[in-house]
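Record type: monomer structure entry
Structure origin: computed from sequence
Chain ID: A
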Amino acid sequence: MWDIDLPSFDPAAAPAAPLALFTAWFAEAVAAGQVEPHTMSLATADEAGLPDVRTVMLHGADASGWSFATHAGSRKGRQLAARPYAALGFYWPAQGRQVRVRGPVTSAPSAESQADLHARSTGALAAALTGRQSEALSSVEELARESRAAWERAQREPDAPVPSWTLYRLRPEEVEFFQGDAARRHVRLVYRRTEEGWAKELLWP
């Protein structure tokens, strides 16, 4: 059982579209002191349909979708090129909440992807300039050497381009909100996109 006070959740009062509820829950997670609430699991599948998952950072959520970024040549970039569909998972234990999102993924234009990169920290740019994500690494010394050079360039050229850096957007077809309950009467509310708009449905926990 949870040893913290969990917030209540009345699904009957939930907004008509999932983005508004996600935005509210995100703000509440921040207010509750949740560590790194913007981190999420990103699940993809390779060409053979085998699943893969990793933790990445949310770059934004708006009417166009949930955004994240990576190198186009990374493992997840290649998987998204082969199968442009993904799922996201947020877990905020400070409030016993989860949010699951899934849908098709598209890549943003290059100019928008570069703007996303250059709006981030010097360290983020240095990591992107280091590049070669998911390729075989010969030694940690090689990584240290390449990283030092990338940091120097990022500090010298804060607008340095990284052509492989790509901003991706997941357009949700389904969004599920899970509110934990100490008595195990968890509340699960799922939104599904339809031709008429969003349909809501409760699920057994």
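Annotation 1: The chain has five helices and ten strands.
Annotation 2: Helices lie at 18-31, 75-82, 110-118, 122-130, 140-156.
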